[in-house]
Amino acid sequence: MRRSAQCPCGRSGAYHNGIMATIQLVRDSGYADRLRAYKVVLDEKEIGEIRDGENKTFSIAPGQHELRCTIDWAGSNTIRFALAENEVAVFSVTSSLRGLRIFLSLWYALIARNSYLCLKEES
Prior knowledge:
By secondary structure, this protein is mainly beta. Helix content is 5%, strand content 43%. The chain has a single domain (14-121), classed as Immunoglobulin-like (Sandwich). The chain has one helix and nine strands, in the order ββββββββαβ. Strand 2 (38-42) and strand 3 form a beta hairpin. The longest helix is centred in the last third of the chain and has 6 residues, at 105-110.
């Protein structure tokens, strides 16, 4: 899926000359973390947050990137990807605490911190 991406900040300059790429992030709705937002981290910088059931779009520079989501001291796996000018990539983030795994919340919070959330690139 391709479409034109625009920078939401409205500034001009080499970075903001309309040469952008876009990531779309989809968070499903679930019992675990329902009232809490996940932080969206691109290239080790927080670029926003996503709440329960939300779909968010972020304009970014084309090129190589690393994406992850965090909540408190826990987070997701890191996905490395590359986007060309005006390209769109779609990702989904879910809690790993589904079904009976809700009883493993202490395990995910203390031991498997980078598996507490599951981040996937959608095709």
